[in-house]
Amino acid sequence: MDPELKADKTNPKRRSKCFKLSNIFFLLNIISFVVLVTGFALKTCRISYNIAICVRNDLRAVPQDIPSTVEGFDLSSNKISRIQVSDFKHLPVLTQLDLNRNYISQIESGAFANLTSLKRLNLNNNKLTELGEDLFHGLSNLTELRIMSNHIKAVASTSFKSMTRLKLLDISHNKLQHITKVHSIIQHLPHLRELYIKNNNLTTFHSWELTNSSLELKYLDLSQNPISVFSVTADVFPNLTWFNIGGSPRKQLMKWDVRNKTFLSRVSTLDISGLQMTFDDMKSLLETVNSSLTSLRMNAMKQNLPALINISCSIPTMSTLQLRYNKLRFVSSDLFKLCINVTELDLTENKIRNIHDSAFRSLQRLRILSLSHNRLSSVPAATRNLPTLRELDLSSNNISKLGCDDFTNQTMLRQLSLSENSVSALSKCVFKDLIRLQVLKLQTNRISNLNGAFQMYLPNLRQLLLNGNELTTIKHGEFRGLQSLQNLSLHDNQIQDLKNGCFIGLTNLTDILLQKNHIKETEINKGVFNDLINLGRLDLRENRIKYDDCSALPYAPFSQLSRLETLAIPSQHRRLKSHLPRNFLQGLTNLSEFNARNIQLLSLHKDMFNYTPQLQKLDISSNDLRDLSPELFSPIQNLQSLYISQANLKSLDFLIDANLTKLQFLQARKNQYSVISEEIIQSLPALVYVDLQGNSFTCGCDNACFLQWVVNNNQTQVFDAYNFECNYPVNLKGKKLLNITIQTCSVDIEFIYFISTTCTILLFMVVSFTLHVLRWHLAYAYYLFLAFLFDTKQKNKQAPNQYDAFISYNTHDEPWVIRELLPKLEGEQGWRLCLHHRDFEPGKPIIDNITDAIYGSRKTICVISRRYLESEWCSREIQVASFRLFDEQKDVLILVFLEEIPTYHLSPYYRMRKLLKKRTYLSWPRAGEHTEIFWEKLHQALKTRADCDSFLFNVVDRQW
User: In angstroms, rounded to a whole number, what is the distance separating the alpha carbons of residues 655 and 673?
Assistant: First the structure.
C-alpha cells in the first residue's frame, strides 16, 4: 500500500463506515473465482439502454470489460485493426454489432462463432481486402450485413455459407469487378431480399452468370458501376420491385439488352440518375417497366430531359417523379404536359429562376410539389391552380415578399414551407385561402412584423415555426385565429415585449419555444401565459429573466399552467447572480421536468418544489449553489434524473437524507467534493447511471467504499470511472483513482470495537451461565488439573514406597480410624500406614504432604462418609489418588464406605461416581454384623501386588 494511504488511515476526520460493504465485497471476491461478477465501471465505454457505446475512443482493440448481457455494441470510429477469436466470446446475447469506421484489415476465422444471436453487423468503412473461408461462421441468425467502403477484391466460395437467414447485404464501394464474385456470395443466401453492390467497378452484367442462383431479391442497387453491357436473357429477378441502375461518373454508354419485357415487369421504383445510354436504349428501358412503374428518379441527367419526361409520363402507373440536379433554370409550359398522373414532383436543386404560369396546369392530380433550393424570387403563380395540392415546399429560395394572391385557391394545402428565404413582413390577407393548412414553416427569414396574419385565418393550423426571425413584440391577440395550434416556435428572435393577451386564443397549444430572446422577468410576471391552459412545454432559456431574492411573488407567473410538464428557464446573457422566488413554480402540479441550468443561481429555497410533486427530471447544473438542503428534495420523491454538474458543491451529503429512493440517473460533474461515502451510495438504491467526471478525488481510505462499489457493483454504471484522477495527497496527484491500493482500508476501528464488545459480552454470558449451572463440574475439573500437575511432579521425583497404605479420612471419622482401623492393620496385620496427623512433615505445604504420602504408599485407603465428601482436603486427596490410578494403570486405590450414601449425593463427584459404576468397594458392616470378613477382604486388598491387572479387589457382596 502507498505510504500516503497508510498515513491517511489515522486521519481523525475519517468517518468511514464501510465494514459491512467490506465483508460483502470480500464474499463477492471469493464468489468471483467461480462466477464472473461484471461491474459497470467500464474503462472506455458506457451503457445506454442495454447498448455498449464505445464511439470515438481511439480504441485499438475490442474492450473485454463489456457486460455479457448487452444486446448492442457500438465500436464505430475507433482504430481497431484486427478482430480476434476471443473478442466477442463473452457476448452470447448480442443482437447488433457496429464496427463502422475502423482500420480492420484482418478478421480471424471463427471470430463471430459465438454470436449466434447477432442480427445486424456493420463493417462499413474498414480496410478488408478479402473475405476468407467461413469468415462469418456462427452467424446463423444474421439478417443484415453491411460491408461497404472497404477494399474487397476476393470472396471465398464459403464466406457466406452459414448466413442462411440474411435478408440485407450491402457490399457497395468495393472492388469486386465481376458479377461472378457476386454470384459466389448470393448463392448461399436463399432469403436475401436486398442487395446493394453500388460502385464495385462492375463492367458487365449477364444474367446467365446468375442462372444457378435462386434469387428472391426485391431491392437491387447496381448504380455507379461502369457497366458497358446489361444483358438479361432469363427471368433471374422475378420479385424485383426496387431497382437502381444509375450511371457512374465515367463517360461511357451502357448497352441495354433485355429482350423480354416481362423480366422486370414488377419494378415499381426505378432510379436511372446519371445513366448514359442511347435514346433508343433509354426508351427500351422505360418500356420494360411500363406496366408497373410508380416512382422514377432521373436526377442529374445529361441527355434530352424533356423527351425522357414525356416518355416516362406516358407510363400510366407512374405517379412520383424526381428530377433533382438537372439545371432546369426555367420550367416551360409544356415540360410536364403529359404528366397527368403524377402526384409527387420533386424539382429540388435545379437553380430554377422562373416558372411559366401554366407549367403545372396538366398536373391536376399533383399532391406534393418541392421547389426548394432554387432561385425563385417570389411564389410562382403556377402553383395557384393546383386544386389537389397538399404539400408545397418553397424553402431555400430568394423570396422576399408574400402577396395576398400567392396562395389563392390553395384550399386543400396541408403543409407549406417558406423557410430560409428573405421574407421581412407578413400581411393580414396572405394566408386567407389556406383553410386546411396544418403546418406552416416560416423559420429563418427576416420577419419583424406579423401584421395580424394569424388573427383571422388558418383555423386548422397545428404547427407554426417562426423561429430565427427578427420579431421584437408579440401584440395582444396576435394568434387569435389559431384555435387549433399545438406547437409554436418563437425562439431565436429578438422578442422583449409580450403584451397582455398576446397568446389569447391558443387554448390548444401544448408546446411553445421562446428561448434565445430578450424577455425579462417583468414580462412573465404579467401573467402572459395564463391563456395557455393546455400548455405542456415551455422553454424560456437564454432570456434576461432575473430575480434578486427568494421572496414570494405577489402573483406566481405559471399559476394557471396546471398541465405544464416541461419548463426550462433562462441562462443569463449577462453573468449576474440571481435567485428564484420561493413560489416561482406555484401551480405546476403536473410538472415532470424542470431545467434551470446556467442561470447563475446562488441558492434554492427549501420550499421551491413544494408545488411540483410529480417532478421526475431536475437540471440545476452550472450554478453557484455550493450546498443543497435535503429538505429541498422532500416534496419530489418521484425524482428519477438529477443534473448537478458545475454547481460548486462541496459535498453530496445532502443525498443521504434527501430520500431519493427512485433516482436512476445522476450527473454531478466538475464540482468540489472529494469523497463519496458509503451513506451516499446506500441512499440511492435505484441508481443505474452516475457521471462524476472532473471532480477532485481524495486517494485515501475515505473513498475505499466508493472504489469497491465502483468496481464490484453490477447495477450502477459509473461513467468514465477509470479516468478519475487523484487530487490529494499531493504526491498522488494525477494518478488514476482506480489504480490505488485500498486493501488495508477494509480494517475499520469501529468494526474492531464492535467485534471486541460483542465477544466480551458473549464471553461474560457464557461464563455466568457456566458458573451458575456447572459450578461443581468446574470445581472437579480444577482439582483434576491440580492432580495432574502434582502427579507429574511426583513422577519426576520417583520416590520409593515408604508405606503400605495412605489413609485418607475426615477428622470426624478419626475415632473409627484410631480405634478400629489402626489397631487391626498395624497391630495385628503389621502393615505400615501413613496418617496425616502423625506422619506429615511439619512446615511443608499440605498439598505436597498429600501427594508425597499418596505416591510414597503402595495403596491409598479412602474412608468415605458424608463428612468426607464435604471436606475440601479429602476431595483433593481422592483426586490425586484417582489420577494416579488411571495414570499409572496400577491397583492403588481402596474405597471403604463407613455409611450408605445415595448415588445422587455423589453427582458433583464425577470421577468417584464413575469409579463406583465400574468397580466394587468395601462397606463397613452395619451394627450387629460380623466384621471378620471385612478385615479379611481389606487384608487381601492390601496384599495385592501393585502391577495387578485389576485396579480394585472384587468383592462378591457389595454391602456388608
Answer: 13
